[in-house]
């Protein structure tokens, strides 16, 4: 091989999902790939070579250029399937800064969207490296390539002459580009999961006729469940399993199974996976190895398994999945080893824990909840929660989704998908691995000090419209409601009961949950019926309150005293503690009075989320991105390890994003402070100067309203005394023009979350910043509506903006714009890992930042191999 002896570079790897549901691994080539790239070019049809190379070009020269491509100004990607190169793409930087020429070629077996995926990845990588435009010289007859450029979502300009077209693409990441990518991911995800959720044929590899065998248990459930397709056992002995003769290998099967379920241990898992790939299977379901082979999973083996899966374009559930279930009549798949007998219904369940997933399935069966699908994700090395949401969004049988999650993988993508799905059907989540409370002494900024426990997770789920629950009982109570009932139009509750005590408990439970036991038009509320009331009395009372325009939802309670009629209402609890029998949809029945208000409060929460406007993303033409990049680059040149920006640098970075800042004058001696105060010709604020992240307000080293030389000199001496009294180093003071008293001081901050990325905080500012739980957190807001929601979540801030105790209304719109501009800064400058704008003075007209601290670290981009 021509590249022999060359040390391979560490590869850039991207896995993409194609239109037909298969996957493709894209890699930056190295010299050792030369022969394979040349073979790919040689194997193209004469027409394809003509269109790609404009009738010219030696394949050895082009293959060598691709294999040697490296650096910022030149990058190539190749796609492999079954070990051979099936596509190649590259960009080459031009002399014009920020511009590169792009070209790609795809195997003649086209139609799966490979070219589009390669363009997406090249554009994303190039944009991250400072390139903003692609140029391409395309033959006018090369319609496939022109279609790819036209449909990518990029802004495109075309000009042509003499049979050639020059295409210019603005590859700056935009919302339009992301929407197109999301649309393609959605279609491809659904196609990719069909062989998992609705296969036409299955092979259970490793099923053996031994007691307790996992594969045999799954095979038995598949057969007993009435699977509508073909199922075949496979084991090396070729023995009889579940009255079926097993094949010795997947290669022996006449036709390739769509889904291969692997119930094996150790390297045998890899052997079966390789056989499945070679046979032409579409998907794998990898089960735990069983009790006889339990132990620590091998990370190296899992990585090799994923390489096999990606190399063949398969999808995989697992490893260590406890199975898949689909109750659709045309599928009838029970590929689990649980004995839970669930009925077909409208609830889809996904779990990142096998044991928790099986428990959820069992509880659903016990509560007679109907299930549409169930998927245990195991280690979710490939198929993820995001994939399930993509599929279940389109599933007409699924009315609600229940998830157990421990991590989010790509939190931004989860938020985008979940927000879209939540608009159609509710997502109910229990989040495992809750975070411990942060120790305040470890926090370096007010924002970090305010961030505690799962506040960010709660914010992420709320922004996405996901309902989080903290116990299984709460989860299933809500699931019963969402599977069977419409949402209430508001929070006004009616109560019917044959017990005054129970009605009182129910009413008392409403208030702390934000529900109102409202006054009815023509009847008392709660409405008490007699202790011996039967169906007729209940029916009349229920109809009366349901027809009342002042009632949004009704809670009906029945206590059986003696010779009662437990069938009076569908939601009645019998005195023996058992739920009445029921089939199909109906009114959910709960054991305790408090459960009804809890469920209705969550239903009202969902109604309110759905009723909020989508909002508009901001467009700020005055943002000076190059100036912001220059500030950061200059700082990192001076401090490669990162650190806190100087006051002047922080002001410049904010100014580049149009964020209003009160001018600060750093003074090393009192004479300079006196001179600055005289130049300002107005009352000033004098603050002790500290090296970040220390704050002058922490020791009350701030004096306001100083006017005249004597006041400034006296203030200087007093601040120096206060700093030295606490053992601090006196390095001078900062002079600012005094911003008029009145208004509200607000904290606007950001901090990098290790799992979820940058999060933004809004809370009370000044000396109150970071105290208690007054700050609200969320992912970076993208629209005005999300910024308003973040402000409203910080109740203390919202109260002051709306006119506290008769004070004037403050400029909410200005604060909203400041928050959105700050979010743009954090999004476009990921080197900012911690920031306090404290305080932001909100006035009746405008907002201004009085003090700020920003910490910078060298950018460490998160390389996600999986791109969907």
Descriptors for this entry?
868 residues; alpha/beta; 25 helices; 23% strand; flat; disordered N terminus
Explain what you see.
This protein has 868 residues and is an alpha/beta fold. The chain has 25 helices and 37 strands. The strands form seven sheets. An eight-stranded mixed sheet has the order 1-2-3-4-5-6-8-7, with helices on both faces. Strands 17-16-19-18-20-21-22 form a seven-stranded mixed sheet, with helices on both faces. Strands 27, 32, 33, 34, 35, 36 and 37 form a seven-stranded antiparallel sheet that branches. Helix 6 (175-197) crosses helix 11 (385-394), helix 16 runs parallel beside helix 18 and helix 19 (625-638) packs antiparallel against helix 20. It is flat, with a radius of gyration of 32 Å.
Gyration radius (Cα, Å) is 32 Å
- Count of helices? 25
Estimated helix fraction: 25-40%
What fraction of residues sit in β-strands? Answer: 15-25%
Content-based structural category: alpha/beta
Q: What is the strand tally?
A: 37
Question: What value does the average pLDDT take?
Answer: 89
């Amino acid at each position: 091989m021509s590249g022999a002896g060359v040390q391979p570079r560490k590869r850039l790897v991207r896995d993409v999902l194609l239109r037909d549901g298969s996957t493709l691994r894209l890699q930056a080539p190295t010299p050792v790939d030369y022969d394979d790239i040349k073979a790919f070019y040689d194997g193209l049809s004469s027409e394809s070579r003509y269109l790609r190379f404009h009738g010219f070009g030696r394949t050895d020269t082009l293959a060598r250029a691709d294999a040697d491509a490296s650096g910022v100004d030149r990058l190539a990607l190749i796609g492999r399937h079954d070990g051979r190169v099936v596509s190649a793409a590259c960009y080459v930087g031009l002399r014009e800064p920020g511009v590169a020429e792009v070209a790609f070629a795809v195997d003649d077996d086209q139609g799966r969207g490979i070219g589009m995926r390669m363009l997406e990845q090249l554009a994303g990588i190039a944009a991250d490296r400072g390139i903003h435009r692609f140029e391409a010289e395309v033959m006018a007859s090369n319609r496939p390539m022109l279609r790819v450029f036209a449909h990518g979502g990029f802004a495109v300009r075309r000009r042509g002459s003499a049979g050639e077209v020059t295409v210019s693409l603005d590859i700056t990441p935009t919302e339009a580009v992301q929407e197109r990518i999301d649309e393609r991911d959605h279609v491809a995800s659904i196609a990719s999961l069909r062989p998992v959720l609705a296969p036409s044929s299955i092979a259970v590899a490793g099923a053996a006729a031994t007691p307790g065998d996992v594969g045999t248990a799954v095979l038995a459930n598949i057969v007993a469940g009435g699977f509508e397709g073909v199922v075949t056992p496979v084991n090396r002995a070729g023995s009889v399993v579940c009255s079926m003769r097993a094949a010795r290998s997947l290669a022996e099967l006449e036709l390739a199974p769509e889904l291969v379920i692997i119930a094996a241990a150790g390297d045998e898992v890899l052997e079966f996976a390789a056989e499945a790939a070679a046979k032409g299977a579409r998907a794998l379901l990898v089960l735990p190895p069983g009790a006889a082979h339990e132990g620590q999973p091998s990370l190296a083996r899992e990585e090799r398994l994923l390489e096999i899966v990606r190399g063949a374009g398969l999808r995989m559930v697992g490893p260590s999945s406890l199975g898949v279930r689909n109750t659709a009549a045309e599928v009838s798949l029970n590929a689990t080893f649980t004995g839970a007998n669930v009925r077909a219904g409208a609830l889809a369940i996904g779990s990142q824990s096998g044991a928790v997933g099986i428990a959820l399935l069992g509880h659903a069966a016990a509560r007679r909840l109907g299930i549409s699908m169930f998927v245990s994700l195991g280690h979710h090395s490939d198929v993820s929660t995001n994939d399930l949401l993509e599929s279940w969004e389109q599933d007409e049988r699924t009315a609600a989704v229940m998830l157990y999650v421990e991590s989010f993988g790509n939190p931004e993508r989860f938020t985008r998908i979940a927000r879209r799905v939540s608009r159609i059907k509710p997502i109910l989540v229990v989040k495992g691995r809750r975070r411990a409370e942060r120790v305040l002494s470890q926090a370096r900024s007010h924002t970090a000090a305010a961030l505690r426990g799962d506040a960010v997770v709660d914010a992420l789920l709320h922004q996405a419209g996901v309902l989080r629950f903290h116990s299984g009982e709460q989860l299933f109570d809500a699931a019963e409601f969402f599977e069977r009932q419409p949402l209430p139009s508001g929070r006004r509750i009616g109560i019917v009961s044959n017990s005054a005590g129970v009605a009182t408990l129910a009413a008392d439970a409403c208030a702390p949950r934000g529900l109102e036991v409202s006054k009815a038009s023509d009847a008392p509320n709660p409405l008490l019926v007699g202790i011996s009331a039967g169906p007729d009395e209940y029916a009349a009372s229920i109809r009366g309150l349901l027809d009342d325009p002042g009632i949004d939802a009704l809670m009906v309670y029945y206590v059986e005293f003696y010779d009662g009629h437990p069938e009076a209402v569908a939601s009645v609890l019998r005195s023996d503690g058992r739920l009445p029998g029921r089939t199909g949809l109906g009114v959910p029945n709960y054991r305790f009075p408090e459960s009804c208000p809890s469920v209705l409060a969550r239903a009202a929460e969902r109604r309110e989320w759905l009723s909020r406007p989508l909002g508009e993303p901001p467009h700020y033409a005055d943002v000076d991105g190059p100036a912001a990049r220059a500030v950061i680059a200059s700082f990192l040149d001076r401090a490669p390890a990162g650190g806190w920006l100087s006051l002047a640098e922080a002001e410049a970075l904010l100014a580049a994003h149009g964020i209003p800042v009160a001018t600060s004058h750093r003074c090393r001696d009192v004479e300079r402070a006196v001179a600055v105060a005289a130049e300002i010709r107005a009352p000033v604020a004098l603050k002790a100067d500290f090296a970040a992240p220390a704050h002058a307000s922490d020791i009350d080293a701030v004096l306001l309203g100083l006017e005249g030389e004597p006041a400034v000199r006296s203030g200087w001496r007093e601040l120096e005394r206060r700093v030295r009294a606490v053992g601090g180093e006196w390095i001078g003071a900062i002079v600012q023009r005094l911003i008029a008293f009145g208004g509200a001081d607000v904290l606007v901050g950001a901090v990098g979350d290790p799992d979820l990325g940058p999060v933004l905080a809004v809370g009370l500012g000044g000396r109150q910043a970071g105290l208690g739980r007054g700050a609200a957190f969320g992912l970076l807001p993208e629209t005005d509506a999300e910024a308003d929601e973040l402000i409203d979540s910080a109740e203390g801030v919202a109260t002051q903006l709306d006119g506290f105790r008769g004070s004037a209304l403050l400029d909410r719109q200005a604060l909203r714009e400041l928050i959105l501009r700050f979010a743009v800064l954090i999004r476009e400058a990921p080197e900012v890992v911690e920031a306090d704008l404290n305080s932001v003075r909100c006035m009746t007209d405008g907002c201004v930042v009085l003090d700020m601290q920003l910490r910078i670290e060298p950018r460490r981009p998160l390389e996600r191999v999986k791109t969907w």
